[in-house]
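The authors assume throughout that readers already know how a fold can be written as discrete tokens. The format is easy to grasp once an entry is in front of the reader. For illustration, here is how one protein appears when written out as sequence plus structure tokens:
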Amino acid sequence: MDTLEYKDLFISESLEHLDRLNQALLALEKDITDQHSLNEIFRTSHTLKGMAATMGFDQITELTHQMENVLEKLRVNHEKITPSVVDVLFECLDTLGILIEEISSAESKNVDISGLLEKLKILASGETLPAVAVSQPRTAAPAVAQPKSDPMKMADTPDTEQELSSEHLEELIVKAEAEGYLTYGVRVKVDTACSFKGVRAFMVYKALSEHGEIIASFPDPQALQEGEFDLEFLLLVLSQRKQALLEKSLKNISEIDVFELVQLTADKVEDFFGESKVKARILVKTTQPEQASKTKTASGRTIQSIRVSIERLDNLQNLVGELVINKIRLTQISKQYALKELKEALIQFDRITNDLQDEVTEVRMVPMEHIFNRFPRMVRDLAKEGGKEIELVMEGKEIELDRTVLDEINDPLVHLLRNAVDHGIETSEVRTQQNKSRHGLISLTAMREKNHVIIKVSDDGRGIDPAHIRAVAVKRGMMSVEESERLSSHEVMNLVSLPGFTTAEKVTEVSGRGVGVDAVRTKIESFGGSLKIESEPGQGSIFILRMPMTLAIIQALLFSVGKEVYALPVINTVETIEFVEEDIKHVQQGEVVMYRDSVLPLLRLHRILEVPGEESQSNDRAILVTEVGEMRVGLLVDQVLGQQEIAIKSLSPMLKSIKGFSGVTILGDGRISLVLDVPSLV
């Protein structure tokens, strides 16, 4: 079936609808009188049902249909919204997520929805579910972040859909014509042998939406997408495109018997619809006719966004990276040959390349809400399983990150939030005894700081007790009592991120295996970020993540070690200091230098990187002061070559296991330079 080409669109939009359902149901659980949230759940479920029916996904269609029956009852009687009803609805959303994942992966998961349908039928009949019939909620698996929806989609029923009147329609068309739009009437008749009329209607709708806006239809949109019409349907389209282009878009759709596309004026529209006009519906979002007149008419809106696969954006980013590499190469050539014309051309080329790089970077930026919106449901389920009362507050969802970085930080944030629920927040009884609010508070905050993003995960729970951490480290054989007592408060906090370290007395499904904070630090540092931990016993903890906004093209410091040239991200560099060999001291079999009244551990890169030849003794040698979290380390290099913009390329799979490098770049002279990964190197 040619509907398969719409599968990706269905999956992405379904995940967005599922995310919206989770958010609305969480709001409804907090306030059962929230009519807006209840209406949102009903509308979104209806939309999802229509989309699934159009595509022929029967299980999703049946499940959302039964959900609608229950929601219709709840809209009449809010008192029926009990915790058991909410749990069943959440169970429905979890099941829908599995069914959508099944479609995405094309692997059968043998999902049996019969038991869930039976529960919904009981609720729809007005009866109360037996206690055993309510399943325990499970933690929803985070959905894959998806791009924003196509602004024109057949299945989305507007919040303010209105019955069409000829006066209103004529006014709408006249205003659109004033903005330069043409009005087209489209009459489509599907083949008598067509088995999926709704699919054909959807394909016609989609084809025309690429060239304009459909403002009215007969029959109404729901009937079209469910195939509830004979063989013929009518559409009214506003477009700035030529008639031939619209006709061409319809000719490629199979099982269309005939179609007619004519240009209309406002006074001819009523004749085109005939007696059927009373059942046509306005598809654009309009509250009142006079509101539309204050701005551009809703019908005068053109497509403002399109869907682009992340693979194409990655390819575009790689091409821009190649341009940056060649720009650096040309700049070096211009220094060798003092040609005025070449220099002038390079100035223009540099400006265009920078502008192109900025535009590509902006296109790849995605708001944090794409992952933030999954967490309220996760925290709600975990809190319920642990018998705790927890409120999650989120700020900074509008902050944007490169899509690659956004995907990378999802797992670290999941680990930190799960730890906050399981380790941080106490039970309501314990909090009451400590004169705290029964409800624990977890905050997830994002903020921008120059070219970096700071994310804080904090809670008002029990906090981290340094004495307890020391005792656990000694008990697990990580150090002696004397060594633990010499640790500073900062060093004690860092112990919780060691592999296998945990303060949990028993292993649970949520935590206790000692991999959570370790996984967070490893992941964040792998792309040049850092993790800082602050805590006060009895008051709570704060985990601070600092990371770059993008990974592909960065500012780096170039330096040489022997005959090799390496690059170090500026984000990891504090400053460069000069030194003489006599400044180096030996402490506990390691080398250090004094730096701003403190001891700075020193690493000789010539020795660590096993660079061929003898270590240089020239006066050009310098120490690069680098920062890993709150720890500073000095890297001894032969010569600092300067700062430069570089395009990072990933290491081949065979080299990924080598510690100390995050990628490679091509220098202006064509040489390959390895990019140091300071955290793994240290």
Q: What stands out?
A: DSSP finds 23 helices and 23 strands in the chain. Residues 28 and 34 are 6 Å apart (CA to CA). Residues 131-163, 276-303 have pLDDT under 50 and may be disordered. Residues 2-133 form a domain with the Four Helix Bundle (Hemerythrin (Met), subunit A) fold (CATH 1.20.120.160).
